[in-house]
Amino acid sequence: MRGMVSVIGGIVAGIAVGLVVSQCGMSEKVMLPAYDEEAKRLRDELAKLPKPSNRFVLAARLVKPAVVNIQAFGRQMVEHPFARLFGDEFFRRFFREFHDVRSLGSGVIVDEKGYVLTNHHVVRGASIILVKLTDGRTFTAKLLGSDPLTDLAVLKIDGENLPTAELGDSDSLEVGQWVLAIGNPFGFGWTVTAGIVSAKGRANVGVAEFEDFIQTDAAVNPGNSGGPLVSLNGKVVGITTAIISRTGGYQGISLAIPSNMAKVVMRSIIKHGRMVRGYMGWTLMTMTPQFARRLRMRFRPGALVWEVLRNSPAEAAGIRPGDVITALNGKKVTDAKRLRNIIATYQAGKKIELTIWRGNHKMSLTATVGAE
User: Among this protein's residues, is 121 annotated catalytic?
Assistant: First the structure.
């Protein structure tokens, strides 16, 4: 599966950075009519309309102004194969070349202060990041922080009357629900495609360490990376990230990071400059009938505790190897990765209630989440 995954921020080598920057620098200030009034009018119309076709139009019109075109410029080191013949670092450096690279992607403004959500892989290694709005304004963005483990990044632009999109509740999405993908595929700015939510909770696809993807069949191509996945209520429910493809192009399976995960990462980056994750100090595995037979246990769906680190929050809570966690705060647990993802979104100091089985005994434990 890993070889079939394609991230969708296009990379173009050999760009003359100075020339491009001079052409795409800060534009003159453009005074716009108040976007807030227009956004309020569109939201009111969305709430009244019963016709799905009109909802597509208005949802796209509402969010599209907040979608941005991102160009990231940097330098990439390429080492010649002959360099491997030389063990000494002094000689190896003569076989290195640096190429100017340009990454093309998308993003979405989610706060009037100028915070922009996009993908980590779109801005990775960039020294200059340009953000272009639908009204023609171009800003040099500051990278506030980037989290490769979720493939998310937060940028900051300084401007007046910035259009914004509202982050929705991705947990409320249902399979079969219509969604829109907005972005800049192949550099074609502000393209809107439609599809349905094909599945939720997709993981183990090799895109990021923490995976809980929304799968959709909305057409997504290189350049869409970092753009929003939008519900017909006009709210951002995901950040488009990757496609599953044998050709490198769209083949009907697109993946987006849930907005609820993006909210947590964004808040942490804004506050700390990085993603600070909740930590328990355990190693978990999804319980299966095969594991149960090997361990001579009764099979119960949940997360099997394989290891507990010393002086960890898990040890302090009384959790032991061999315990099976079946619920977190009263909600069923059936997958170890899903449980790990949820714990990672919690802040240090948060109290959690765990339902566990230890042999044939059911127990409830209270634990305090630590910081990674």
Answer: yes
Domain 166-272 matches domain 278-371 at the CATH topology level: no
The 10s digit of each residue's pLDDT in 12-34 is 433 333 323 223 333 344 445 56
Helices 52-63 and 35-48: angle between axes, nearest 10 degrees: 160
Which CATH superfamily is 2-33+63-156 part of? Trypsin-like serine proteases (2.40.10.10)
Structural domain spans, the chain:
2-33+63-156, 166-272, 278-371
Q: Which two tokens stand for residue 337?
A: 């990765």
Q: Exactly one of 6, 103, 146, 151 is catalytic; name it.
A: 151
Known active-site residue 225: yes
Residue identified by tokens 């922009």 is 116
Cα(38)–Cα(117) distance, integer angstroms:
22
Catalytic residue among 6, 106, 170, 225: 225
Write down the residue that tokens 């409830």 correspond to.
Answer: 364
pTM: 0.77
Q: What is the number of residues in the chain?
A: 372
The CATH fold assigned to 166-272 is: Thrombin, subunit H (2.40.10)
